[in-house]
Amino acid sequence: MTVTLEPMPADRRTAWLDRSRSEYIESRQKAGETLGQATANADRSFKTYFPQGVPAAGQHVFDVVADGAPVGILWIGVMDSASNDWWVFDVEISESERGRGYGRAAMELAETTAQELGAASIGLNVFGYNTIARKLYESLGYETTSVQMKKGL
After folding, report:
1. Has residue 17 been placed in a domain?
2. Is residue 146 situated within a structural domain?
């Protein structure tokens, strides 16, 4: 299996941004935020990192390609333009392609690509309910740096 990253073409970016924003809102709600809170957080993030729908400096969106066919997406970039600490904002393998090692390969390519572009570190957020992703990241050497907890009343 050969997995590569290819810059996402601009003509597909709008559809991806819309889907990614919706999924982000849904994930934040699933993690306990109200629709209003989740929407405000998504609006703030996407306006910062994709003003007018175009990646800001330091933001990179790729198609994850396996043996010539797209199998997912990867968005990496700087969290703060004054830092060389990078972030995996989104990594998603198509549902029909999961379980084949593409997620692991995408994460390894994210690390290599970020380092080649000047990153000193790379981090990510994983929602607590996403146990499969958490296991993957831990197996790749990611360490927990923060834990948020919540209890409904």
Report:
1. yes
2. no
Residue type for position 13: R
Instruction: Give me the number of domains the chain comprises.
Output: 1
Confidence of residue 151 (pLDDT cuts 50, 70, 90): low
**Start-to-end Cα distance in the chain:** 48
* Residue 53, domain extent: 3-139
Residue 98: alpha-carbon gap to chain centroid:
16
Q: Is the dihedral of CA 103, 104, 106, 111 positive or negative?
A: positive
Residue 69: pLDDT band with limits 50, 70, 90: very high
Dmax over CA atoms of the chain, in Å, equals: 50
Asked, for residue 16, whether it belongs to a domain, the answer is yes
| 144, part of any domain | no
| DSSP SS3 for 126 | coil
> What is the pTM (predicted TM-score) of this model?
0.86
